[in-house]
Known about the structure:
globular
Amino acid sequence: xxxxxxxxxxAAFQVxxxxxxxxxxxxxxxxxADGFNTFTITSLYxxxxxxxxxxxxxxxxxxxxxxxxxxxLTIPEAVLGGYLGLFGGVLLYLAAAEILPEAHxxxxxxxxxxxxxxxxxxxxxxxGISG
Length: 131
């Protein structure tokens, strides 16, 4: 999915600089969590640190490769809006239906609420910077 994140960045820049910046900032923020997860899961399953670092590098390079692919491929405007809408909608669905309820399930804590508010504030900051 990291390569598709890169395609979304490249497609958004085909729309315009503001849209590209907004999507790039969102994907970069999202990819920090991906990097933590990639390294942690690879390490937890008994892989050597070298292999975990290799997976982390691959995860970091995938969005760049995806974004570069859009240099050679111009997405038609009619398809582009649908793709970006689908991309955004899937991310919103995952956050609203899967991640947020799980964060509050069986272990409500002030830290969960604080992290939720901090995440919303970060999104507000990203939108403000890219606007």
